[in-house]
Each structure stands twice: as structure tokens, then as C-alpha cells.
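Re: your question from the hallway

Yes, I did run it. Sequences:
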Amino acid sequence: MKSTQYSEKTLDHFRNPRNVGTLEGDDVAVGRVGNPVCGDLMDIYVRVKDDRIADIKFQTFGCGSAVATSSMVTELVMGKTLEEALEVTRSDVADALDGLPPVKMHCSNLAADALHEAISNWRKGIKPELDTPDESVGCACVTGDLPIAGIDELVGKGVYRSLDDPSVLADARTIVVDRGDDSARLAIALTAHTPRVVFMTVGKEPAISDEIKSELKRSDVKLLIESRLLEVKGEFEVEKALVQDLNENEEYELVADAVVLLD
Amino acid sequence: MSERVYLDYQSAKPVDPRVVEAMLPFFTTRFGNASALHTVGDDATSTLDESRARVARLFGAEPDEIVFTSGATESNNLALMGYCLRNKRKGDHVLISEAEHISILNCAKALEKSGFRVTRVPIDQFGRVSPDKIRARITDDTILVSIGWASNEIGTVQPMHEIAEMLTGTGVALHTDAVAAQGLLPIDMAAIPIDLMTLSSNDIYGPRGLGVLYLRKGVRVAPTIIGGGQENGLRSGTEDIASIAGMATAADIMAAEMAQEAVRLATYRDRLIEEILARVPHAHLNGHPQHRLPNNAHFRFEGIEGESLLLSLKDEGISVSTGSACSSKTLAPSHTLISCGLLHEEAHGSLELTVGRFSKESDVDRIIEVLPGVVRRLRTLSPLYKE
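Structure:
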């Protein structure tokens, strides 16, 4: 079966998703579930009144089934008690959509999990601040200084401890590690010479002044938050960076030609 | 629904009606086996010989350098497995690029299981392989370099002439999978020192199920299909004369029309790139801005996922392709985009548009008109996209 062979009901929920959006207020909680390997990320917002789901909204980045399952789960539990909502499973959602392609059952069928996460967060009193929900933010400056493997071997071969002339990195895929305002300014300056500049920071936000932060966000720099550089690899010169996604606690390789790590 | 719009020529091309016409007699009246010694067999033999010469002509090759196979995948197998098995006493090391077609990547894995060593040469952010990076990785044990002429996915064209010249005199054989490039770029084997080249019939608007391995005179491979010794012993099995005659006709048409066709397709491509980047915010071009196939426009859109994009365009009657994981069998995003240096979330939001012989200006108009709204709608659903 093709991975996109969806039932008519799934397609209907994809084309006309119910309850799209976000919710705000003291009686709101949110659950976020994502699978970076498959490329799905969903947020489900619940408004709880008298132990019932008074309102529910979602936002989803993902494939057709990711959108459809999110939409369906909001329909299934609207008005239900929290206990009833917690009983809704992934397979209930898939059944309500008249089934999903087998390959999508596991990776894109996360809406029930996001709902359960939202209810759990509501019970724990965790408010929807998706941009800063994590307690680990405060230790950004400490974790940023962990040793990075491969740096010494590749200095002069794509690893830069200082960079006076950004034009030497013309067309190089460059990772600039967050070392404060100077590193951010350098990242912005590099965009004049190469279309690919990644600014990597361990925190939810770069550890730089507000003024440069807004300049950075307007620039062509690709901001990579909650990411730690673990290792720089390459046979003859820098080829890849091993990156830890601190949010998912997963490691992956990012192809790059240069890594700038200001002292 | 309005008229169907097909913008996925890289995945399949229609057979040119002139080719179909030329093939028809070979199914019914001229059905002979080229190995048979009677009149009906002789007709097949002469068709085979004459077709081989016509296919060779399109690529500046000699007729006896053309081996017909069942398609590009088989040609890639015969090139990599066949060359390495036949030449293993010379060495055990093979170089490919990180951006090769899946059939090359998987042949390379199979070679590793048979005791060969494979080095995968990195590509730059535009998908190009530098001849210097290949040179730096060649050792005394290297016997074969295989680099696709152009990417079927992001459309980047490799510096094949530089790579071929760099390898001249080194004793290392050069194979290229030219399937994405054929019919779009001039290929003249008399002018470029390439030893083995993979071609497909459908990619010049011939029938599916037929391919070619170009084998320069003197280059030896071990057959991967054993039988009655057809195709000079390199590819056994009764020849598919109808398809071979079809590919010959397709080659003649291509020889006559390619120059004009490539110019027309390039104007479509340039309009697609210019208009889509102008109309869709936070859109980026993948692949090389200059060194790219005349029929390929490849984008990524921040905050959305490719399968959703594909489904939405399908609802509009538009057929496209994406490098998103969710549309693949393995649920892994395009290896080419990852090797270009993109993050997974970026590779997921990609869209590939490829035009071809039967594309019309109105097809280009339609996607340009529809796409911005589709991207906007998907972004309203996405938690990753903030205005």
C-alpha cells in the first residue's frame, strides 16, 4: 500500500481540518508531540472547565495523516470528561478515520499522545508557553562550554577560532556556534558571502543582546536552537558536524564545510 | 476540476506518439527473434543492428559500445557490479558521490558486502562534486569512480568534463549515470573520456523497460545476467526488438529536437523559479542556480511538510514530487538534500517541479497561480511557521 493511500475520511480531515488554532487563558494547557525522524510535530491545546474539555485546538506540521489525526482527535474528545479523553487511543483515532496506511500508523499517528500530554500538563498546572517550556534553559552558558571532539584536529581545515575576513568562507556551509554578540554579528556578516549560515545555540534563544537578536532573526541566518555541537568530523577537512538536539535528546549529522567557534 | 497538470517528468515521461507508431509493427507482423536464422529472424537482426547504430549516434558512440538492458537500474548494476567483479585483481576501491541515485547507493552497499571498499565523496551546498575532492580520495587500489551526470532530484549538473579529464591516464575507470541529463544536455562520447554510461529509453520519451549501458571499447565487465549470450555475452535474454526500435526512433527525434526543446524548457524553469521565489515568502531554491538541468525547479518552503504540499496540489489536479520523508518508503528524507547540508525539517518541506516535451506554458501558469495559496493554508496549520 502506498504511504499516501488515504481513506476519504482522512482526506476530508486533511482538506477541511476541524479546530485549527491555539488557545489562551488560565484554563488552557497544551501538549506537544513530535517525531523529527518522520517530520511531524503537533500541538494540541485544551480548555478545561468542570473537568471537561470545553474547547480544543491544534496546530500540526506534518504529512496528510498527521493533520488528519490531529483534526480527528479534537472532534473525538470535544466536550468529553478528562477521564474519557484519556481513554482515546491512537487506534481509536485511526479507526475513526477508516484506517491509515500501515507505514503511517506508527509515525504520524501521534495526536492521541499529544492530547494525553495536554491533559497531563493541565493536571500538573503547566501553562502553555511553548517558546520557553523547558527548565534546562538556564544552564545554557554552562553546557555551551563542553568540549567538542575533533576541533583540534581540524583547526585550519574548516574550523575557525577567529575570523577576520568573512569572505574566506565564500559559499561554505558554515556553522557559527553561539558565543555571544560577536559571534552573532559574524554570522550576519557571513550571509553576504554564503547562502548557508547556521547559528547554533544550546538555549531556547541565543545568548545575545535583544538588538542583535532581532537583526539575526531578520537575516538569512538559519537559527538552530536547543542544539549542542558534539563533534566536528572530516577526513581531509570539515565535512560534518555531530549535533545533539537537546529537546529530543537525539544526535544527528549536519553536513558543513566550516565551523566557527570564537575563543 | 480543471485540466490535469503534470510536473513530474523526472519520475516518468510519456512515450512520444511517434515512437509508439514506430513500435507497433514489431508486436504483430515483425515479431522475430534476432537469434533465429530464417527470414523473420533476419528482419529482427537487421532492426536490432540498425537501431543500435541510431541510439549510438545520439550519444556520439560506436554501435558496438551500446549494450541494451532492461533499464537504468540494470545498467547501473552491470556497470558497478560487473566492472568491479571483472577487474578486482586491479584493486578493491570504488568512489561514488553522496548524491547518487538509490540504485548506485545500493549497488555500492552490495559491493561492500562482497569485500570492496566504497568511499562516498561529499557534495557542496548546491549538490556539486569537486574534481579535487575526488582526486584526494583516489588510492592505488581505486578501480572505479561513479558520478551521476546530473541529479534527477535537485537538477544539479556535475562538472563531468573536468572529472573525466582529471581521471584520464590514472587507470581508474569512470562511470556516469546519465539518465537525468540525457535528452536535456548534449552528450558526446567522442569528446569526453567516460568509460561506462547508464542511459534509459523512457528518459528520451521511448518505452519503459529498456536501458543502455555504454561501454567504451576495451572496457570489460562481467555479465550480471547469464543465459544465451545475447548482447555480446554481456546481457543475455531475447532482445525486445519493439522497444529497441522504439528507443531508436526516440533517439532520432531527440537528435532533431533537443536543442530547441532545451531552450523552451529552460524558459519554463526560469519562470517557475523566478515567480515562485517572488510570490511565496520564505521559499528557497535547492540545487545550483546556474549548473542545473533546463527542466528542473526544486524548492523548499519553511514551516511546511512536502507530503501535505503534494496532497494539496493533487487536489488541484497538479502532479509533483517531494523529497519529504513522509512520501518515501523508508520514511527518511532525501539523502541528496541532507548531503547538501539541509536540516531534516528543511528537507521535509521540499517540492520538485520538472517539465518536459509535452509541458505547456499554461501548466507553468497554473502552478504559479495555485502554489502560494496552498503554502499559505498549510502554514496556518503549522506550529513551526510564524509570520
